[in-house]
Design goal:
2 strands; signal; 6 helices; 60% helix; mainly alpha
Length: 107
């Protein structure tokens, strides 16, 4: 129940924001948007289409030398990484590992 409430809150927040970008790097924005399952429009990635993968979008931007304007908070990153790790049969990240993960794309 808490998971769905968190996802709903995140989606509501980002529907107001409407779009995410990898800074001014249009090519990175489009590539990262597609990499997380979104459909880029012009130079934006509609946040409503990637609301459950904001952490991955921000990490992708970072890997391409850009900074996302839609960084995911720790709670969002927890939901994403726990789901990915569960699907891979791995244990969830510790709080310290999660903090390091989030900090890696917020610099």
């Amino acid at each position: 129940m808490k998971l769905s409430a968190a996802i709903t809150a995140i989606a509501a927040f980002f529907s107001a924001t409407e779009a995410c970008k990898c800074g001014s790097n249009v090519d990175a924005t489009r590539a990262c948007c597609r990499s997380v399952g979104g459909n880029p429009t012009n130079d934006d990635c509609p946040a409503s289409g990637i609301s459950e993968r904001l952490s991955n979008f921000a990490s992708c931007c970072n890997s391409l030398g850009a900074r996302s304007d839609c960084r995911c908070p720790v709670g969002c990153a927890r939901v994403e990484t726990d789901a990915q790790r569960l699907a891979a049969g791995q244990d969830p990240l510790t709080d310290e590992e999660l903090a390091a993960y989030v900090n890696s794309y917020q610099d």
